[in-house]
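Cross-posting from the modeling subforum.

Setting up a comparison between two proteins and wanted a second pair of eyes on the formatting. Protein 1 (sequence, then structure tokens):
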Amino acid sequence: MVSRGQRLTDAFVAALELRKLLRKGAAFCDVFADLELRIETLEDGYPEWHPAPYSFRGMLKLFLYREVTGDSYRTLTRHPELADVFGLEQIPDESVLSRAWHNRFDDDVRGFITASAHCLVKEIHNENLSVPEVRPLEEVKQPSEDAPEPTEAATEFSDEEIYRTTQLAREHGFSSFDSGRAQNATYEDTRFFELQTFIGMVGCGTPQGAVRFKFRRGKEYSPHGDTHLRAVKQFDPESLIDGFQQATERLLSVIQSKSSFRRPVTVAIDITTIRYFGDVEGMPMVSGTKDGEGKAFKFATLSIVGWNIPLILAVEPVRESSSWDQNPPNRIHRVVRRLVRRAQEHVPIEMVLCDREFGSKAVYQTLSNLDVDYLIPKRIHSTEREIIETMNEDSQEVAVESATVHVNQGSHAMQFLYVPSTKSEGTAVFATNLSVDPEEAETFCRRYSRRWQIENEYKSIKNDFLAKTSSKDYRVRLFYFVFAVLLHNIWRLTDFLLKAGVGGEMDYVPILTAGECVELVCSALVPPD
């Protein structure tokens, strides 16, 4: 029996080929007519003697088209001209289509179609390609009624190859961290990294994770849970951030040795929260949440977004003033400055995307002083409302207002772009230090949609890589978060190296899921039962 990896790689390659043709401006239907599907790993559910008049290859193309467009069976039957596209004598009727999906195609074939189609849909939306026939991105994020979302990743690789690649990525990520413990210590730092990875994988606390790890690796190999926490506390915040910087540099060096890296890059900055439910006395790094009721640790990150491999380049702890402490008010522009400067040590930055929480004159000027462009949505106040009212009276959908920022750190010219909101009815306002004509404003602001990638990163970090802890020690909290981000980057590097092995490009859609990567990292550490 062929490996699922080979079969799903064929699906991934088909999506890449379709995307390549669409990039060149080919008509949507033409790309399906020209597509050469690799079907050696797929089995036709109808035997050779079956009287089915429709070719297996043609039906595969038809259903791939259907999954990309989201068309119903009835809609397909209303377009008989599509038969030539798929090499069929005619488009089958609804009953034949239903029987083919449920009876002729097995789980492998249905998984192939869904994986390839959804990969293509995500790539088209990610690159903002103008392909009106393609279904909305949101529709492929949930299982559809007739075509369940595949649970396997679209990859083609033997277990040995995946193991070897993951081990390489892991070595580049872990080797940059040094706790500063004595050389004659009982356990090397790598033992603690292995335990930390295992704890993140199984989703339990440190004591339980340490016991389970000892059971798998042996009593003498693995440290006790208390020993692990003591070792973690040896990583002071500054050395931890420095270690992350070095690890990021090594990961990028591997990428750049394998593929051309689009420069300069677009990056996104945001803040994520890790909820905290304990006592806040003596906990200056615990901040209030937006709802005014919760408490959380907060971390800011800077991530590459767009068409490059989505690595997180910088991490910064956030310390805010709260009702229960005497912290000075948070100066978010200083957090932004540190993040961008660290990232600029690795790559040149063209554009910075932030959410409206960063929309202040101090942030605008900080980014201008760092010689980067920015695009940041602005909160709508009385001045903006007046301009929007005037636009409505004049039947204007787009407007550009020039302004100048004057703060202690300097000054610069900027613009406010008023464009139709993509999330609701009405007008959205963006701030930028670029000169944008009204005719280009709406298209320019679509770049902001790339920032959604960072939200997905946070979900993955918290759900797949972040180990649980109830510790009140901030050194533990910071280490756990930074290590989870490191595992996220290792996942992305592994995914990239695997894509490079089949001639794929650096892009956002992963072919190796985060859960699979965590298991693979641990499989390199923990022998099977």
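Protein 2 (same layout):
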Amino acid sequence: MSDWQSTTCMRCAVGCGHRQRPTADGDSLGEVTGDPSHPATGGAKCQRGVSETLAPDGKRITDPLIRRGGTLQPTDWETALGLVTSRFIEALGNNNGNIAVLGSGQQTNEAAYALGKLARGGFGTPYYDSNTTLCMASAVSAYFQSFGSDAPPPTYDDIPKADTHLIWGANPATAHPVVYRWITDSVADDGQLIVVDPVETATADDADTHVRPDPGTDLALARAVLAAVIDAGDVDTKFIESQTTGYEELVDSLPTLDTAAETAGVDTDTIETIADGLTDDTLLYWGMGVNQSIQGTATARALIDLCLVTGNIGPGSGPFSLTGQANSMGNRVCSSKGTWPGHRAFDDETARKAVAEAWDVPLSRLPETTGPGFVGIVDAIARGESEVCWTVATNPAAGMPDAGQVTDVLEEVFLVAQDAFYSETVACADVVLPAATWGETEGTATNMERRVSRVRQAVDPPGAARQDLDIIAAIGNRVETGLFAETPLDPGRVFDELTALTAGTTADLSGLSYDRLTEELAVRWPAPTADSHGGYRYHEGGDRWQFETESGRARFSAATHSGVPEPLDAAYPLVLTTGRCAGVYNTGIRNRADDDTVPDARIHPETVGNCLDAFDRSRTVIESRRDSVTVTVAADDSVPPGMVWVPIHNPAANKLTLPAVDPESDEPNLKQCAVTVRAPPRSTDDDDQGTAAASTPALSGDGGLVDR
């Protein structure tokens, strides 16, 4: 076999350093393991990341496909690209918004940058977004509003330093096992673990305190803890007075502890236990249970407020959102989705001029707004505002809320799907462009603590599949001559173009290069020089801080709990929520077999007993106001009474979910909606219906993100 090659796992945003090498014949990956020299993870790995890199089970796409006579049939690249670009040029002849582009946190930095350059600078479309909006947008909005800049302040180095680990609306034991191992090691070393989650998860099983709020009340609970902290006098007055603004408004906006506790369905003693934990150095982690809500931004800001008010905003403490997709962070820095590269403000005229000059495109072509978000783009397509849609490494037909309606929209528009594996979105497409996946791609990725590292190609992609970067450039140059160099592109030169455009910004990558990353393996931004690297954000040492706001101070918030978007009633008396299972990620297109059975649902035995007429042979039909899905039921007291829990990995799950979005972030409310259960039809049709719903050729996830 060849020598080992350093690379980065692309399974989740932990960013584990891997080593890989091909088989003796060079046709496929032969071995993958952890890299002990990697500065972020030191050889740590999870089995899921290794197995999904080495031997994914999903159905690969190896040739371009064009729909003919209602079916997808193989073709050559010239034919596929010719059809795609002719339709794109035709659409652009009507107006710039006639092309909708949906990207992904599974792309490399280089591919995400190129897609944003083409969407914003080549097409000029406002209808461009990444599926990271489906999972991280609320955290991003909260960071910008609180600190003036995106990304969590802490790093992995802070985990062993913390005394209290407060995990809110996340299950890292299942979703981020390597990070969770570090957390449990820290807890074992005289620390404590507090978990906030309505469901008894693998993470909650390890908790010293497990807090179970009513679904959709996280903001009310966070504000109850704030009230308890302030009532107890456990505030860091010096930090508040010297480094923050808005504290008085926060205090004035708070309800009484008893009122907030009643709203959240949590007793005051438990709330005081959380507040007491915050008196020690605390890392406060959160995930999709917070973000995927119409109050996601407000809740994330309230969690940041908890850190600010208690002075937990320095080494060994602070707010630390847990990112799902492997390159969600890089996508936010470089893809021109919500900000221009380097987190330059989208409406900043100086930034816009710099971007237009770097891309050599007319300033007037750059859209004036970031667009309506992932859900809003699909709504715009449904209204006929875009004639064509291009999806890259994402699967909206399975990963978006009200997925049945999304599928209907995608079947009506001219759809180009670029992916490595078959998926529900691919099944809707008019043209399919086969892409390379892990081990077949050159580039970089950025993990959740801001470390940039290399993603390396060990083997060629199968058949005619090409790297994302080259597919994007081939389309771009046909639409806008000279936008990119001739393909195949040199990813290193694309990276250099990207990093130069971030120089002088809050997310400065200009001190990075492929040579440096080859030598050091992973470097945190900001890295403005060839020997600099980022540490704890905003902290300049001792009592010196500098936040990226106009005042240089962190900002408190004062949003109040407004209720859930779809209250329960007599017709829909149960609450649906979704979560992850061990060994699967997103909607599982890399490891879902074609013969998968109907989705499993977990329901409390008491709820099962109250609804016995709705069950037949351990099956029931879950029905929301949008659709219905046949499931197999497991009675499980880890789920609270009145709740139905389904795995997000199954494509049927999002047929039920609600497309309401957070007004600040455009992130959808995927974690709560009203449902009922009814008996399935007593015929073989229900078996066929359930199996079809669960085994469509592939999926995406974290609230809707394709796995590569």
